[in-house]
Amino acid sequence: MESHSGIAAVVKKTLNRRYRAERRFRRIGLAAVAVGLLFLAVLFTAIVSKGYTAFQQTHVLLDVYVDPDVVHVGNLDSADYQGLIKASLRELFPDVKGHRDKRNLYKLVSSGAGSILRQKVLEDTSLIGRRIQIWVPADDDVDMVIKGHVDRSLPESQRRLNNKSLAWVDALKEQGRLEKRWNLTFFTAGDSREPELAGIWGATVGSFYTLLITLSLSFPLGTAAAVYLEEFAPRNRWTDLLEVNINNLAAVPSIVFGLLGLAVFLNFFGLPRSSPLVGGLVLTLMTLPTIIIAGRAALQSVPPSIRDAALAVGASKMQAVFHHVLPLALPGMLTGTIIGMARALGETAPLLMVGMVAFIVDIPRGFTDAATALPVQIFLWADSPERAFVEKTSAAIMVLLGFLILMNGAAVFLRNRYERRW
Amino acid sequence: MKKIICVLGMAVVLGLSQAPAATARDYISIVGSSTVYPFSTTVAEHFGKTTPFKTPKVESTGSGGGFKLFCAGVGVQHPDITNASRAIKPSEKQTCAQNGVREIVQVKIGYDGIVLAQSKKVPAMHLSRRDIFLALAKEVPDPSGAEKTVPNPYKTWKDVNPQLPDVKIEVLGPPPTSGTRDAFLELAMQGGAKSFKWLKELKKKDKKLFKKIAHTLREDGAYIDAGENDNLIVQKLEANPNALGIFGFSYLDQNADKIQGAFVDGVEPTFENISAQKYPLSRPLFFYVKKAHVGTIPGIQEYIAEFTSEKAWGPEGYLADKGLIPLPDEERSKMREVARKLEVMPME
């Protein structure tokens, strides 16, 4: 009794201190999470606040007379459509005289306006000889002014648009001919040097083809390697060495895989440079260790009793693995694969070495076409001098983040849906 | 679970069924300088839009990296054209010749100015090349006038030249791999070093030592290696009005509302001054064509024709809008002839 109350006294004495320590630890942990979330919030606000404007693009409404003298059945493809656009601008501002002023006037609309008109006429040849209304993208300089990214109060010499051009822009706006519209081009076009015509579809398709190659090679290879190493391989010095090597490879900087790809796939096998085929192969090398490690961990988490039970009722080793262990481990393996794929999607360094960091306008149509990838597109735009590429860069980052969230979300979903806890 | 595997499998089969048919390349492959990249890509895009050919692929590898790829041999796996912000070096010609690339057409396309830019919040600096050299070299001539070098003692611009403002020397510039840095060293630093008589004489006697003095930048924090991203330098200059940044003229041109160029030897870096070759820090830009590929790869001649057309590289052309400083009229028409006729440059 005596000693009992003695213990109680000791406990009582230290109890408050222990509670305090616990509260302190919880608060520190919470603060760590909060700091992390804060950084994330800063990152997201920075990207979103810079990038959301890129989803809209200033367009100009023009009345174009599709002159039958300029466009006729014989030259539908190659007619001077930009000339028609210029003519309609001259009609809007009949007072503009002089070579220099006219040039500045033409610069208000995108140099891609002609090809939009061309597309329209090609779709419907009955437009020839008629006067049509058409929305065409404005030049990126106009777009920046409308979106307020340029200080209009600066002296004329320090602006991309001079006073006259600004007056024209204001006049267009007053007539309701200038409008910010949904920027479909951004999602359907390939790269371009003109920010108003640049899009991410080319890079998205490139990323898709590259990842398809990566997935179709690294998933079967990785799974097979993991199953063999975990279930069948004997434990000896060689497999230990192999394990050390695989763990090492998972930590090797990705640029090294790019150099390897350059030496092996391009120089030795002579595969086409800049193609998703080579990019996918390089990324396969990069993701394989990740997938093998995740796969082995998943196999390890299947309790031995499952294997023992299967073997006890007479299943062969292979049957035990393929009928019982692998299906239980597969959700974990898929999660690892998806995370590996997400990492491959965000990778630029190895692609640099195999020529996928390139200006490519045409949308790739196969595994051997020249292509680029989403993160590469972001890198290229971030380095472009035109002001309008700043918002395009952020917008492309948002799209890439969207894909990453989707993939990682799928991984979490798979885990929650199919994972069994023992 | 089985369903997921099924879907995955189908995706793989679908993907592989349109199997790669490795054929001859039907688009032009261009590599080379990051300075020429904006111009080359603009031409490529126009070319792709206005001709039946595919849009050329343009990689930004740097001038040196471009020549390495270009000179690796003849055949579809090697690029057809390389861009450069400097002329080809004799050693690169040798590599080319060794690998069977003997017929090369050199086309000079215009000029680029190297600017030392600063924020608009402060008055523009007036620098001479001598000031630049003294401010940025690791070893500078002894201030006492003796003909030897001492570790750079200057902390502020005022230390360098009493007429300059009393602010800390802080210059953001490109890394050693950049062609812009090569040109800066050659034009600004060497130019400044040569303003010392004894160093000029040293150049004749011991070229290597001279180059070492002129080409070694400070490592004590006055010169800051800011990486290849010139947009980043622009942002840093805006934040720090005391700093100067080194980059190509096109960035100054596109960001004229935020930054201004310092006067060098009394000349402002403007379109007109660089074009008239009054501005001392300007360099020619080139592209090189592998003649053996003309005829094999479709569209090379047409691409060259587009690049050298007046609507592209002329004073009113679309490349001028992107910041290219055109060649003088006479040189332009001469170069156009060279390009049209595919006149091969001498290899010796």
UniProtKB/TrEMBL annotation, chain A:
One of its GO terms (cellular component) is plasma membrane. It is a multi-pass membrane protein. Its main location: membrane. The keyword Transmembrane applies. It comes from the Bacteria. The keyword Membrane applies. It is found in: Cell membrane. It comes from Desulfacinum hydrothermale DSM 13146. GO terms for molecular function: phosphate transmembrane transporter activity. SUPFAM superfamilies: MetI-like (SSF161098). InterPro entries: DUF3333, MetI-like, MetI-like_sf, Phosphate_PstA. Coiled coil: none annotated. One of its GO terms (biological process) is phosphate ion transmembrane transport. Belongs to the binding-protein-dependent transport system permease family. CysTW subfamily. The chain crosses the membrane at residues 28-48, 208-229, 249-271, 277-299, 320-342, 395-414. Keywords: Cell membrane, Membrane, Transmembrane, Transmembrane helix, Transport. Residues 204-411 form the ABC transmembrane type-1 domain. PROSITE patterns: ABC_TM1. This is Phosphate transport system permease protein PstA.
TrEMBL record, chain B:
SUPFAM superfamilies: Periplasmic binding protein-like II. Keywords: Signal. Residues 18-310 form the PBP domain. Pfam families: PBP_like_2 (PF12849). Coiled coil: none annotated. It comes from the Bacteria. InterPro entries: PBP_domain, Phosphate_ABC_transporter. Residues 1-21 form the signal peptide. This is Phosphate ABC transporter substrate-binding protein, PhoT family (TC 3.A.1.7.1). It comes from Desulfacinum hydrothermale DSM 13146.
